[in-house]
Amino acid sequence: xxxxxxxxxxxxxxxxxxxxxxxxxxxxxxxxxxxxxxxxxxxxxxxxxxxxxxxxxxxxxxxxxxxxxxxxxxxxxxxxxxxxxxxxxxxxxxxxxxxxxxxxxxxxxxxxxxxxxxxxxxxxxxxxxxxxxxxxxxxxxxxxxxxxxxxxxxxxxxxxxxxxxxxxxxxxxxxxxxxxxxxxxxxxxxxxxxxxxxxxxxxxxxxxxxxxxxxxxxxx
Length: 220
What we know:
Elements: H1 3-24, H2 31-38, H3 42-48, H4 52-68, H5 80-99, H6 102-111, H7 113-139, H8 148-162, H9 165-170, H10 175-190, H11 204-219
C-alpha cells in the first residue's frame, strides 16, 4: 500500500473516533477503547498507529487541515467573492463548534502541549485572516462598520449557546432552524443593505442541511 493510500486508511479510522474524543476528551481512553471506537482489532489498529499519542496527533491534524482548507482570499477579488467567502467562513465557524470543545482542549494542553500549541497557532492565524477579511469588506464599502473582533466573539459565545441542547430544548426548535436564523442574522448584520445581493442564499441551504445532520448525529 502506497503512502497516500495508507494515509487515507488512517484518516478513515480516525474519523470513526474523532466525535467521541472531541466530545468526551481522551485522557480516560486506552488503546483497547480506541480500537473499539475504530471498529477494528488491536492488531489492525497497531498497523496504523504506534501509540495513543499517534492517534491524538492524527485527530489534531485533521482539525488543522480543515481550518487551513479555507484558503486566504486575494485582496483584488471582485465583490462577488465576498458573498462566497462569507458563506465558507460561516460553515467553518459552525463546524469548529464540534471540533474545539473545552474538554478536548484541556486534555490536549495537559497531555500533548506541542499539539495544543500547534492547534492554537492555526486558530490564531484563522482569526487574523478573518479580521483582515472584515476590514477589507469595510474598506470596499461592502460591510457595515462593525468591529471584527466582536463578530468573532459572537461566534465563539452566541453560536455555542444557540446550538446547545439546552437552548434547543428550551426553545422547542431544531438545529436546522437555529443555523438558518443565525446565518440570516450574520448576513444582515455584516453586509450593507445595497450589497446583500452579493450573497446567494441558495448556496447555503445544502450546507445547513449537512451541518444539521452532523450535529444531530453528535447528539444521538
